[in-house]
Specification:
Distance between the termini of chain A: 56 Å
Helix content of chain A: 25-40%
Number of helices of chain B: 0
Strand order of the largest sheet of chain B: 2-1-7-8
Number of domains of chain A: 1
Strand content of chain B: over 45%
Shape of chain B: elongated
Radius of gyration of chain B: 18 Å
Structural class of chain B: mainly beta
Strand order of the largest sheet of chain A: 1-2
Order of helices and strands of chain B: EEEEEEEE
Strand content of chain A: 5-15%
Number of strands of chain B: 8
Number of helices of chain A: 14
Oligomer: heterodimer
Number of strands of chain A: 6
Helix content of chain B: under 10%
Mean pLDDT of chain B: 96
Number of domains of chain B: 2
Order of helices and strands of chain A: HHHHHHHHHHEEHEEHHHEE
Distance between the termini of chain B: 29 Å
Low-confidence stretches of chain A: 6-17
Largest sheet of chain A: 2 strands, parallel
Mean pLDDT of chain A: 93
Structural class of chain A: alpha+beta
Radius of gyration of chain A: 24 Å
Shape of chain A: globular
Largest interface: A-B, 59 and 55 residues
Chain lengths: 292, 99
């Protein structure tokens, strides 16, 4: 009997909340629901790349900043609640991309806890909320839901199918229709103003730039061709890495400088010594720079 | 991008800044906004575009008697605030009016 009880307890611990319809009431519950830490047991290098990526700290901004703080601060934005204790998921429209699992899987109490953590500058708590492996390889993996249905529980989606995936929860990997296409990234690295909200706002325009400037130029590389070479899950740039970011930018952006010194004849007898600097910047990026 | 011209003694002869980025307002007033929670739509875009070269021709008039200048072009990426810079290229050229 004691053995059976132990098995039942272990089973309960092994099945994350994601398997149930129950929503997370706390940040810890939401973090646990989408916890991907066990992925590193087999995908160690990919996991390490992800750990250094902005996807691993979507609410932290650059260099430890708590970029959502204005949303928790009374009067700072149109979305901010008067009192953090009254915060709801709707007070954080950024969740659309920065924490999509909050929209599907969190109670408003998570928004309250986050608002309080932001105001208290509790970085440790805020950092628990991440775009984990499960978010990309399940939650955001399907955009043809009328044809293909919702992402299935217990199934991961990737660029190729794997019949047997040795994980206690996600036992199967199905081929995603879009995971090699830029539209996959375009779900969040956006088109322009988010007009579907009752208060429009604009974050990333990058996919719009890709569609309307890069593709019309006759180019055809995907986001992954440049930002995920050899399956790199850092998905650079990592703006916390000054040297790496400078190197990446220097690789993508060229600067040509040509100079000329001469005496310009402004009018008869009046020469103006002049230096002319001609600059030409070109980029190999598939989108405007800067954008996100 | 910051283009600076200096005389041989280090005195600055001129400095020109060019800012390349999309610029948005909240569509309720004419103030530019940073931050997704305040921006609504771009109204101007000077950013680097795919497959398009960004060209500038910058002129510095030298003071009387100055026949040489050292020109430095610094191209960098500013993130979130102007203090957070990532250097991209820094090119220096010595320009003389004498042959």
């Amino acid at each position: 009997m004691r053995f059976l009880k132990l098995i039942l307890i272990l089973l309960f611990m092994a099945v994350p909340l994601i398997a149930s319809a129950e929503k997370a009431k706390t940040i810890d519950e939401l973090a646990k629901m989408y916890d991907s830490s066990r992925c590193k047991e087999c995908h160690e290098s990919i996991y390490k790349q992800w750990e250094n990526s902005h996807h691993a700290r979507p609410l932290m901004g650059v260099k430890g900043g708590l970029m959502l703080t204005p949303l928790a601060t009374k009067g700072a934005t149109a979305f901010s609640p008067d009192d953090p204790k009254k915060a709801t998921i709707k007070n954080f429209p950024c969740f659309k991309c920065h924490l999509p699992q909050a929209i599907t899987s969190a109670e408003d109490s998570v928004a309250v806890e986050l608002a309080e953590a932001l105001l208290a500058k509790d970085s440790t708590k805020v950092a628990k909320l991440q775009i984990t492996c499960i978010v990309c390889h399940n939650t955001k993996a399907i955009i043809h839901k009328r044809e293909l249905g919702e992402p299935k529980a217990g199934v991961l989606y990737s660029s190729k199918a794997v019949d047997s995936h040795p994980d206690g929860i996600f036992k199967k990997v199905e081929k995603s229709a879009i995971m090699k296409d830029s539209v996959y990234c375009g779900q969040c690295h956006g088109l322009g103003p988010n007009l579907e909200f009752d208060q429009a706002f604009q974050c990333a325009n990058l996919y719009g730039s890709y569609l309307h400037s890069y593709i019309p130029s006759g180019a055809s590389q995907t986001c992954m061709d440049c930002h995920m070479q050899k399956g790199d899950h850092l998905i650079a740039p990592n703006f916390n890495d000054d040297k790496g970011t400078s190197e990446l930018l220097a690789k993508a952006i060229s600067l040509d400088v040509q100079t000329l010194g001469y005496e310009w004849l402004l009018k008869a007898g009046t020469y103006v010594p002049k230096v002319v600097v001609n600059t030409k910047i070109t980029t190999t990026a598939g989108h405007r720079i800067p954008d996100g | 991008m910051v283009v600076t011209a200096k005389a041989a003694d280090g005195k600055e002869l001129g400095k020109v800044e060019k800012h390349y980025h999309p610029q948005a307002t909240n569509c309720r007033d004419t103030k530019m906004r940073y931050g997704a929670q305040w921006k609504v739509a771009n109204l101007r875009d000077t950013s680097l575009q795919p497959a398009q070269a960004k060209k500038e021709s910058i002129e510095f008039d030298l003071p009387a008697g100055v026949r040489e200048a050292t020109v430095t072009v610094d191209l960098f990426y500013e993130n979130v605030n102007p203090g957070n810079k990532y250097s991209i290229h820094s090119i220096t050229r010595k320009v003389s009016l004498d042959r």
